[in-house]
Structure formats: structure tokens, C-alpha cells
């Protein structure tokens, strides 16, 4: 029988055996009992349908983890077995973790996209409108990349009046996300109209800084409109969803941000032609209106009024004289008629020997009109006889 050993000795021997035997293992399992510690370490377990093993990922390795661990998630762990001697317990110390069946970057991308969407970072209502005619644009990009040259070329051809302010920025590498955040904050403090954040194409790893949450926060909190122009047309980054406008490429960002000077020249020519036509028609209409007003003024001037009144007086005088003469003529005609009647009816003018004028009630009457018993006056210039008709004979 072997001599007994202490518990510490046994645990030490087990530790030596396990840690030298399981130096680099790869294990697949489902996450449970997950804890993100304030220290930056991650404690959890992985399990299958029969067993469970404790795991730890220390801060030094956890900072390189691209996605966030979640309970129930299937993962593949690369690491070593370690033994905690005082308790005689062992655990899997993780150096690398990948999602099972899915790339870590792809999962991290979807996790962050869902998180920011839930926070309203992608809402159209919060997106700012781009200025119609920007005067200054801040470019948050690398000073040595092809993107800056492409943007300068497009800007020169499209709108030479624009002033571009370069904010030199690291756009690739582990520390680039912090530099991008600082550059966005600095650009936001400048006297510019909008900001373009971007870089040329590359692998998903090269572009990953634009998928970081702190970059998304910086874009969301910026007071100026931001265009995200990262990679190629097929690349969609988190910055594209958060920014006010997404451009397919850096060159396309300039096309979106700047008006086309040639289109504006055509517009101005058309505007000038339309303005000249409108002005010419306006002048012609005003000339006609002025002529009509002049005629109206002439018609209503004092001279015109005096002439009109003089003409009216003349017409009234002519009408008065005409009416007066007409009345005189009418009265003269009546007088002449009365004179003729008087002359005709005057007994002196009608008197002949053996003839007398017959009247009844001072009305001259013919002999043929008399009836028996009529009282009549027979009158000559010198004598009036009152008579009664006794008898009438017709011949």
C-alpha cells in the first residue's frame, strides 16, 4: 500500500497532469451561467446534453472578442485546462471564442445592428437634411488613401467653389475606432456645413472600425449632417445605417453632397431666358397699361373736362335755341292759324248783301244743320237778330 499524500499534493499533481495534457483544446458547447465582471473578465459555463464545464476568459483576451456572449449561444472555444489548486476545481481558460456555424464578425455585426436599431439610431425621423449649397465640408479619412484623392477630383469637377477641410484619421487597425471618434468630434466643432466619414474598399477586417459601437455613438451624437462613405457599393457598415446619408463610395459621397455646376449653369441659363421673357412681357403689359392710363388721364384731365363741359354747354345752347325757335314757330303757327280763323270767321270779312252768319250758343253753324224750334242768331256786321226756326224745307 502506498503512503498517503496530502490533498494539496494530489491537487498539484492533478494540475500538472491536466495542464500539460490539455494544453490546446477546442470545445463546442452552449453558454450558460454567463457573467460579465466589472474587472473585464468573463465567467460562464458551456454544456451539452450530458455535461457542463466552467470557463473563464480574462480581460486581456476578452477585449479582442468581436461579438457579445449570450446565454443559449452555441460557441467554439480554443484554450487550455487550468486547475485552481485550493479548491481542487478545474476550468477551461479561453484564449479565443467563435460562434458555432457563424463568423464572429458577422455575429457581432448583427448583434450591434439589432441593438442600435432598438435604440432608434436608424430612425429616419432623426436623420438631418444635407445643405443644398454647402460651402465647407470636413473629410474624416486617411490623408494617404485613394479615397481622399477621389473625393478631391469629384469635388473639383462638380463644384469648384467648395472648400474641403481634411481631418487626418486612422481608418484601419485596432486603435482606428478611437481615432475616428476623435476626428468626428473635432470635425463637429469646425465651421463646416457637413461631414463625410469614409475610406476606400478592403476586407471586412479592414473596414471593421466602422462597425464599432463607439463610432456609431459618435455619428449619432454629431450635430452636423454626416455622410458615411465606406468601402464599395456592396459594403454595408453600421456607420451607413447610423449616418444621415449612406454613399456607395467616397466619390459617390461627393456626388451626393455637392450640386452639379453644369446642371446649375443650364438652370441659370434657362432661368435667365425665362426671366427675360417674363420681364419683356411685363414691360409690354406695363406699356399698354401706361398708354391706357394716359388716355384715361387725358379723358379726365382739366382741359378735357373743360372741353367736355364747353361741348355740353354748346350742345345745350344749340338745343335751347332749337327748342326755343321751335316753340316760337309753333306759337307763331298757332297764332297764324288763329289769325286765319279769326279772319275767316270775322263777319266783316264774310259779309255780303243778302247774307247773314248763323250761330247757336256762339258757335258758327250751317243752315243745313238747323232743326225746327232752334234758337239762332242771325248776325251781320251791323245787326244781330234773335230768331226761332219755325219750319225747314229741303231743296
TrEMBL record:
Q: Taxonomy-wise, where does this protein's organism fall, top ranks first?
A: Bacteria, Pseudomonadati, Campylobacterota, Epsilonproteobacteria, Campylobacterales
Source organism: Halarcobacter mediterraneus
Where does the protein principally reside?
Answer: cytoplasm
Give the multimer and partner information: Heterooligomer composed of large and small subunits.
State the coiled-coil residue ranges: 299-341
A Pfam family it matches:
tRNA_anti_2
Q: Which InterPro entries did the record assign? A: Exonuc_VII_L, Exonuc_VII_lsu_C, NA-bd_OB-fold, OB-fold_nuc-bd_dom
Does Nuclease count among this protein's keywords? Answer: yes
**Subcellular location, record wording:** Cytoplasm
Recorded name of the encoding gene: xseA
The reactions it catalyses are:
Exonucleolytic cleavage in either 5'- to 3'- or 3'- to 5'-direction to yield nucleoside 5'-phosphates
Protein's name in the database: Exodeoxyribonuclease 7 large subunit
Task: State which Enzyme Commission number(s) the record gives.
Answer: 3.1.11.6
Amino acid at each position: 500500500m502506498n503512503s498517503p499524500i496530502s490533498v494539496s499534493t494530489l491537487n498539484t499533481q492533478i494540475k500538472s497532469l491536466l495542464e500539460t495534457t490539455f494544453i490546446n483544446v477546442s470545445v463546442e458547447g452552449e453558454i450558460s451561467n454567463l457573467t460579465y465582471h466589472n474587472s473585464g473578465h468573463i465567467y460562464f459555463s458551456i454544456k451539452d446534453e450530458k455535461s457542463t464545464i466552467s470557463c473563464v476568459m480574462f480581460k486581456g483576451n476578452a477585449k479582442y472578442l468581436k461579438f457579445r456572449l449570450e446565454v443559449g449561444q452555441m460557441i467554439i472555444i480554443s484554450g487550455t485546462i487550468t486547475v485552481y489548486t485550493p479548491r481542487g476545481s478545474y476550468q477551461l481558460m479561453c484564449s479565443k471564442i467563435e460562434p458555432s456555424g457563424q463568423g464572429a464578425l458577422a455575429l457581432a455585426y448583427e448583434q450591434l445592428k439589432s441593438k442600435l436599431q432598438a435604440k432608434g439610431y436608424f430612425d429616419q425621423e432623426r436623420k438631418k437634411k444635407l445643405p443644398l449649397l454647402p460651402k465647407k465640408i470636413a473629410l474624416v479619412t486617411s490623408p494617404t488613401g485613394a479615397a481622399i484623392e477621389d473625393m478631391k477630383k469629384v469635388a473639383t469637377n462638380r463644384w469648384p467653389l467648395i472648400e474641403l477641410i481634411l481631418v487626418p484619421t486612422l481608418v484601419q487597425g485596432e486603435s482606428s475606432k478611437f481615432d475616428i471618434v476623435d476626428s468626428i468630434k473635432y470635425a463637429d466643432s469646425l465651421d463646416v456645413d457637413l461631414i463625410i466619414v469614409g475610406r476606400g474598399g478592403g476586407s471586412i477586417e479592414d473596414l471593421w472600425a466602422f462597425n464599432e459601437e463607439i463610432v456609431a455613438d459618435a455619428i449619432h451624437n454629431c450635430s452636423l449632417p454626416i455622410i458615411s462613405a465606406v468601402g464599395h457599393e456592396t459594403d454595408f457598415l453600421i456607420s451607413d445605417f447610423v449616418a444621415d446619408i449612406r454613399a456607395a463610395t467616397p466619390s459617390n459621397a461627393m456626388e451626393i453632397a455637392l450640386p452639379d455646376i453644369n446642371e446649375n449653369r443650364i438652370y441659370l441659363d434657362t432661368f435667365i431666358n425665362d426671366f427675360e421673357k417674363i420681364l419683356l412681357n411685363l414691360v409690354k403689359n406695363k406699356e399698354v397699361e401706361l398708354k391706357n392710363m394716359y388716355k384715361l388721364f387725358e379723358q379726365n384731365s382739366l382741359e378735357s373736362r373743360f372741353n367736355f363741359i364747353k361741348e355740353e354747354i354748346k350742345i345745350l345752347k344749340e338745343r335751347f335755341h332749337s327748342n326755343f325757335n321751335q316753340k316760337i314757330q309753333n306759337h307763331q303757327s298757332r297764332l297764324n292759324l288763329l289769325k286765319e280763323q279769326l279772319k275767316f270767321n270775322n263777319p266783316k270779312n264774310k259779309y255780303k248783301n243778302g247774307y247773314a252768319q248763323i250761330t247757336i250758343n256762339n258757335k258758327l253753324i250751317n243752315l243745313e244743320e238747323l232743326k225746327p224750334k232752334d234758337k239762332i242768331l242771325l248776325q251781320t256786321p251791323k245787326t244781330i237778330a234773335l230768331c226761332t226756326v219755325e219750319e225747314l224745307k229741303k231743296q
